[in-house]
């Protein structure tokens, strides 16, 4: 199998390991208040996932906040602070290069709630009773 085919089948074990390490470090940085902003303190930011590029130089950091409040503003603040957070990350990370960070809102919880509500809707329940 060639290298290009392998990368299209999903992340490698190394990408997963490094992504998880970055997730833990960023969660610690944000929970300890090493980067503080009034909106971040009231939002309780949770780092849900980190997807890292095959060359380990770019990382998409998916975040959510308790209650999902002010997500657009929180994402904007974190993207503005990405350089500062990258510096803090670099001091704790064990790989040669510290990846560039891009923060995005994690919408999987909203999608899951939407699907759950559809499954519990009267229209779907009607179809299940017919069987």
Task: Give an overview of the whole structure.
- The structure is a single chain.
- This protein is α+β, with helices and mostly antiparallel strands.
- The protein has a single domain, classed as K homology (KH) domain (GMP Synthetase, Chain A, domain 3, 2-Layer Sandwich).
- 56% of the residues lie in helices and 17% in strands.
- It contains 7 helices and 3 strands.
- The protein has a 3-stranded mixed sheet with strand order 1-2-3.
- Strand 1 and strand 2 form a beta hairpin.
- Helix 2 crosses helix 5.
Sequence of strands across the biggest β-sheet? 1-2-3
| Share of helix, binned | 55-70%
Return residue spans where pLDDT drops below 50 for at least 5 consecutive residues.
none
Number of domains: 1
Query: How many helices?
Result: 7
Using the 3D structure, state the CATH architecture: 2-Layer Sandwich
Note the main sheet: 3 strands, mixed
Rounded radius of gyration (Å): 18 Å
Strands, count = 3
| Relevant CATH superfamily | K homology (KH) domain
Silhouette: flat
Oligomer: single chain
Structural category is: alpha+beta
**Distance between the first and last residues' Cα:** 46 Å
Question: What does the average pLDDT come to?
Answer: 84
Instruction: Note the beta-strand portion.
Output: 15-25%
SSE order, one letter for each helix or strand: HHHEEHHEHH
